[in-house]
Specification:
The structure holds 2 protein chains of 2 kinds. Chain A is mainly β. Chain A contains 1 helix and 24 strands. Chain A folds into 2 domains: 13-42; 48-307, Neuraminidase (6 Propeller), CATH 2.120.10. Chain A starts with 14 loop residues before the first helix and ends in a 6-residue tail after the last strand. Chain B is of the alpha/beta class. In chain B, a hairpin with a 5-residue loop joins strand 7 and strand 8. Classes of the chains: A mainly beta, B alpha/beta.
């Protein structure tokens, strides 16, 4: 789909078709303006105040807590746990000195997974079973290598993640012991940020298979790949809403990194944030009405909770 | 207690300015270390009174930034789209919209070549013009300018802003300092954290002194003796020189001011961004205003922290395309335009040469990890100020970005051009026995 802010004529269409398309695009633009105005009017709540570089926020504990990554010192990315009730913040792994990033939690709260630095550009994926307190891991491959963007299936039986080899970055899944690897998405380019739909039937991911980063949806086994966005820009970090009907993602389509929300089929697109600085890392609150994002404002990066309008054109 | 080795310049933490200043006031001016030495008189006014070298350590991908190849095969071009610039016919990737909108403020060179594919060796070649081996290591361009200008009244003639001496996981870049000119021409190191806290490593050995103790000469000398016993005798002279320079600056109000970012408005500090590179760039601008002859502004060494205790910089062997989107390009595209804007608006760009460069580029062909490795055969630089006509592109790489199609420009030519613009002509270079065989990039001038 195309952004309504940047309608592009298709020269292969006949003139009446183009006029109809343009009318529809303007109609879409009108609706999007309404939705965007709603979004801009929505409140955002600043959740952190340390101004440090942050990434990868994710809600846990029914939305009462957040886990995110902060550049705690120049040499270390640290997993932090923020209690949204009393606003206290603690390291998730108190004594850890290695960089850790990209945490994800299973929906039943039993498992979580994260990436852990093991050397020069060498990154392992660690899976922790909170019920047995056992750890499983996929160690780094030789040389510069590392997994990316792990996420659990809704039934908490498998994880999905991306890994680069042979000049391209594919999407794999393993069980919670880090075993039984399966290739789900294999194409040229870079495939990243995979996640399952809440019903576990589809996979959402970003890919450069057609050039720049765009957003794609596939069946859970990697078949039936559908392109959801198609603009010459970077559409990254897509995330299913809790009801599986919408996708939040980051895009620089308007010249700056902002958060956008659309329906799963690419319709109903609107820009959620309008900030001259960078907005990124959207993560849905379990209520489906809010997103936590990392927003850079006056040069400082903090977590903000942003309302998502329920209206969908 | 406060540490004499560093001070915080941030007000967002609720701290007032600053023990650093208090210490400066409490230091005995009659200590004998603070007497400024008069500047040497430079025969002719150089086009560049100050050189600011923005060192993109780690080597950014030229294809993913300033020299995209949108028509190259997929295994070369990468995922980024291209956008127009203010320079007709010139496009950058869409990761650099603000720099694209300011391409009329600088000139881009796309046909650099180097001869060393490793970081420390390549860094030395890029910063000195010569290989480390067989040695001796030649002086950093900054050391050459520093020697030519002579001692400065207020500040060291060669200041390096960043996190210590640049290094990778194995070792330092040998060409960081004085080389054959001697350690007296090593850079004065200034570390600047993401919140603007400033750290002067030359003073680290005295960091447990309190203001009370430092104003007690007997206690201070006792501590210095203690330190002397702790360190290798061979290093004493170098250390003594470093702390003398540091304390000389501490006792000089103008020098103190240069290091004090709280003198900037909040809006200015915000504009640069609260990253190590952002606040360091603001520090660099203040040093330009203070007329430091040569400033090397180093890229923040740990923007991603996936390599422990190491200077990773732009060395994106892994996750190149994500890291450039997530961190590197947003930081560069925020800070560098502000720096250029401020230098121009303050009337400093006419007499300041800004050079943005790295040790090499990155492989045009995407590697097995879907990223890019080292590529000294072709890379870019940006040049602004000092009378260089902006808005041009000099040199051209081939269709894959693998090699220059036009005249290649070497690090020795870069150094020679910097020296020429800084007023060190061929005769002076010869007399100093530096940059032997170097040619000026005439196309720039």
């Amino acid at each position: 789909m195309r952004s309504p802010q940047t309608p592009i004529k298709d020269p292969t269409r006949t003139l009446p078709q183009q006029h109809t398309a343009i009318k529809l695009q303007w109609l879409g633009l009108f609706y999007c303006l309404i939705a965007t105005c709603s979004a801009r009017a929505a409140d955002s709540v600043r959740l952190t105040h340390d101004s440090l570089f942050k990434r990868d926020p994710v809600f846990i504990a029914r939305g009462e807590e957040l886990v995110y990554v902060v550049l705690d010192r120049p040499e270390q990315l640290r997993l932090m746990r923020l209690n949204l009730v009393d606003r206290t913040v603690h390291p998730l792994h108190k004594d850890e000195m290695r960089s850790e990033l990209e945490p994800a939690f299973s929906s039943d709260g039993r498992y979580y997974v994260f990436l852990q630095n093991r050397g020069a550009a060498s990154v392992a994926m660690v899976i922790r079973d909170l019920q047995t307190n056992e750890y499983a891991e996929i160690p780094p491959a030789p040389g510069f290598a590392g997994m990316r963007s792990p996420a659990f299936s809704p039934d908490a039986k498998r994880l999905i993640y991306s890994f680069a080899e042979h000049g391209r970055q594919q999407i794999y899944s393993v069980n919670t012991k880090g075993k039984d690897p399966k290739t789900l998405i294999d194409s040229t380019g870079i495939n990243n940020w995979p996640s399952y739909s809440p019903d576990g039937q589809r996979i959402l991911f970003g890919s450069t298979r057609h050039g720049n980063f765009d957003i794609y949806v596939a069946n859970r086994d990697g078949s039936n790949i559908c392109r959801v966005t198609n603009l010459p820009c970077q559409d990254i970090r897509p995330r299913f809403s809790p009801n599986g009907k919408r996708i939040a993602f980051t895009s620089n389509r308007d010249g700056n990194y902002e958060i956008y929300v659309m329906n799963v089929d690419g319709t109903g697109l609107f820009r959620l944030t309008e900030n001259p600085e960078k907005d990124d890392y959207p993560a849905w609150h379990p209520d489906g009405k809010r997103l936590v994002i990392v927003s850079e404002r006056t040069g400082r990066q903090d977590l903000y909770l942003v309302q998502v309008p329920t209206y969908v054109p | 207690m406060f540490d004499i080795g560093d001070f915080r310049a941030s007000t967002c933490a609720g701290l007032t300015r600053r023990s650093f200043l208090k210490i400066g006031a409490s230091l005995p001016l009659a200590w004998g270390l603070a007497d400024p030495v008069r500047s040497a008189v430079v025969a002719e006014t150089p086009r560049a009174k100050t050189v600011l070298l923005v060192w993109l350590w780690g080597a950014p991908s030229h294809l993913d930034t300033f020299d995209p190849k949108p028509n190259a095969p997929a295994e070369y071009r990468g995922p980024f789209s291209t956008i127009g610039t203010r320079t007709p016919g010139v496009r950058f990737t869409d990761l650099l919209p603000r720099l694209a909108a300011r391409s009329d403020q600088y000139t881009l060179i796309r046909s650099h070549v180097s001869s060393q594919p490793g970081h420390p060796d390549g860094g030395t070649v890029a910063l000195t013009g010569f290989h480390e081996k067989p040695g001796p290591v030649q002086p950093n361009f900054g050391a050459i300018v520093a020697k030519h200008r002579g001692p400065q009244a207020n500040l060291s003639p060669f200041v390096s802003v960043g996190r210590g001496i640049i290094r990778d996981s194995a070792r330092i870049v040998e060409g960081y300092g004085g080389g054959t000119l001697g350690k007296a021409y090593d850079p004065f190191l200034v570390n600047c954290a993401e919140d603007g806290a400033v750290d002067l490593p030359a003073l680290k050995l005295l960091r447990d002194l309190t203001p009370d103790r430092i104003s007690d000469r007997k206690s201070l000398l006792g501590r210095i003796d203690e330190v002397r016993r702790q360190i290798d005798r061979a290093k004493i002279e170098d250390w003594a020189r470093q702390y003398q320079r540091a304390y000389g600056m501490l006792t000089n109000p103008r020098a103190r001011d240069a290091f004090d970012l709280t003198r900037e408005s909040q809006a200015t500090r915000d504009a640069y961004g609260y990253t190590t590179f952002g606040q360091s760039a603001l520090m660099a601008r203040r040093l330009v205003e203070a007329q430091v002859p040569y400033i090397q502004l180093n890229w923040s060494e740990t923007v991603e922290s996936i390599t422990p205790n190491c200077d990773f910089g732009w060395d994106t062997h892994l996750w190149n395309f994500e890291l450039l989107v997530d961190r590197h390009c947003p930081i560069l595209d925020r800070t560098l335009p502000v720096l250029l804007d401020e230098l121009r608006e303050r009337g400093l760009l006419d007499t300041t040469l800004v050079v943005v460069i790295s040790e090499f580029g990155r492989t045009p062909k995407i590697n097995i990890r879907a990223a890019r490795d080292h590529w000294p055969q072709c890379y870019f630089s940006l040049w602004a100020g000092a009378g260089i006509e902006p808005g041009r592109t000099i040199g051209e790489s081939d269709r894959l970005g693998e090699h220059p199609m036009t005249k290649p420009f070497t690090p020795l030519m870069v150094g020679t051009t910097i020296a020429e613009l800084a007023g060190i002509n061929a005769q002076a270079r010869s007399e100093m026995n530096v940059l032997e065989g170097g040619q000026v990039i005439e196309e720039l001038l």
